[in-house]
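Shipment paperwork, digital attachment
Item: protein structure file
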Amino acid sequence: MTNKPQNIALILIQAATVAVFAGRAWQHLFWDAPFRTLLWDEGWMKGIVKGGFGMQWQNYITSMEVDSAIQSAIKGTGVFYLFCALLALFIRKLPKWLGKVLLLGALSLLILAALYCKEKFFSLGQFFEYALQVSSPVFLYQMVYRKVDRERLVFYMKVATALTFICHGLYAINFYPRPGLFVEMFINTLGTKEETAHTLLAAAGILDFVASAALFLPLRYARPAALYMALWGLATALARITSFFDASYALESMNQWMHETVFRFPHFLIPLAMWYLMGILSKRKEEVFYSTTTSCLLPANRPSFSKRR
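Attachment content:
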């Protein structure tokens, strides 16, 4: 790719993909993931446990061996995510067949999103807020291994970005119960009172909706919206550190919150990459307009500049 803005966009998408896999790897290897939300659901799993494993439900949920197997599955998924992060880091040197592992990684992230959705009583907002995280590996694979139609790629980026920000906005305006964590981050970062934090969150949610809609307007509106979303996505990702970092327990704070920040990097890196790509589209449309206008002004019996070349 010789186009500088497109190269920058590729680097941003690559960084987003490395970050989401690295952050999720850290989560799965050293913390936890919602596997038990499904595997300990009696309504969904009791028949499978009894028919497939010949175990009574009470024995299953109290078995140390079963719990150890679930924990091993979580850590094994963490190892897989770490492998995906390394693949994304060196993807330009890898054959296409190996790059396809990133698509499996995206599928795994989609399943993780579904588990979080189930944990939150099947709130669709909880599922679709992971759109940017899930789609980052797909965007990277498309840019590296396939001929990219920029307009189509930008459209899909707009959809993923809008889904993520709209869903965040739904929590911010209290359509879904507003997380206490959101309020606490505003209070800790800005030093506001709780009432002010609630007001600011509601305003931020409305801006999420406005910016998401603006993405689908002409480029002169869509580009500023994408840039705003990149800045706001960066702020909300870093808020996990700025809000909860304790210098007295620096290592413990970083261990607890750094991965929460890192796997949210797509929330600002993808909108920023989209901003660069929209710049290419805007420039191309200006060149087409200029070329067409100039051609129309030329005498009929005189060749255009492009023909003279």
